[in-house]
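Data availability (excerpt). The following record was deposited with the supplementary files.
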Amino acid sequence: MSSAASRCSVFSSWLAEALAAEGPVAPESLRQDIRADVCIVGGGFTGLWSAIEIKQANPDTEVVIAEARLCGSGASGRNGGFVLSLWAKYQSLAKMCGQAEALRLCEQSSQAIVDLQAFCQQHDIDAQLRLDGWLWAATNTAQLGSWESTVSQLERLGQSPFQRLAPGTAAQLSGSSLHLDGVFEPVSASIQPAMLARGLLRHARRLGVKVYESSPMERLDGGVPARVQCTHGSVRADKVILAMNAWAAQFADIRKAFVVVSSDVVMTRPLPGLLEKIGWSSGMTISDSRMLVHYYRTTPDGRIVFGKGGGSEQLVYGARLADKLDGASGIAATVAAHLRRAYPGVQSADIVSNWTGPIDRTRNGLPHFGALPGQANVFYAIGYSGNGVGPSMLGGKILAALALRLDNEWSRCGLVHGLQRDFPPEPLRYLGGRLVRHAVGQVDLAADENRQPSWLMQQLCKLAPSGLSPTKTAAPHSR
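Predicted structure:
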């Protein structure tokens, strides 16, 4: 394993695997003052897709990426590797930007998944992509029908991205009797996310994008051109794109529009015999319908990857993200217990790695794009809220259109949304967040135990931001 892989293995097994496949890596850092047309801060999916889209639209544009560590070391290399559309969030989209635009964005998000498969094939990116669909499931009676309002509304509009399942089919497809029911979205995929990120990096460089890793931004000076000051050099650029995910919390104008929660993941050793025995033979991804969502999938070599969104009660105060949600998961034992509850054939010794990372969650669970107040040449992307792998492809199109001042369906799209205070200032934000997070955990636990949560816990849950997909907070009920 290269020294870079060794350093980053604490972030995720995905990145360690991707770097090992590359061989020895010597990241080039920024060590001089340079000039560019566009400087992108952040070398994850959003930053890389933005750079690629800009160079494809205007090859003469000088694009520089400044990445704090390694491309793929942030959220893009730590997620579960789900490539999902926006269909599950249709109702939130329609409230935000109207029915017609919501439908267009959902359709585009599905097409992006198909396009990603073709892109990887065309550019020789082995991201282990399997277009095997997504199961939106219920694992207790309280979750039953969580998808109903979304699916029914889409059906009334003549849309059918989800397939309703016959009784028992969810358990059969997933290989676990814990799954009581669900709906299936065929146009969804699983990938090795860090392999995709590193593949995008190689393609961006082939297009002429200059990428500097190990170059954290220490300060952003406004003006035209703006100046991105890194540790040992700087970039003066006419346009700046902040593609920093949760790390954008360092900007007060952005921080007020999202909260940071954890995502915690465990991974098993290869268990092909077990998967064959239980019948979970495809690359289908699975999410349940709890508020602190459980999400899980297999890998081509037979590993099970199981994650929990928002599971840690360790919240971030203000802009103090730093390394707080880096490295090994502090709740790995809890996540592993949930995995073994779903798949009792997995033994404790089968779980060989774990990691944590931050999620930037907006009030409505949707990503927002735009320009910073008073800085029309500095653009941001925030709030993928746990579903960023596929939608970041759309994000790249949006940010490229904004940076190039294009007047098209992406610069005018419904996700271009001005920043507003959706969460209270500190210390109310932190203290209130802890109360709400505790309440959400209590309501999820009550549902698992088939009992009714307290009235107070239910009321506090109503203050929680939206997650991966719509959920119900009502008391458990029988089918």
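Summary of structural features: The chain has 14 helices and 18 strands.
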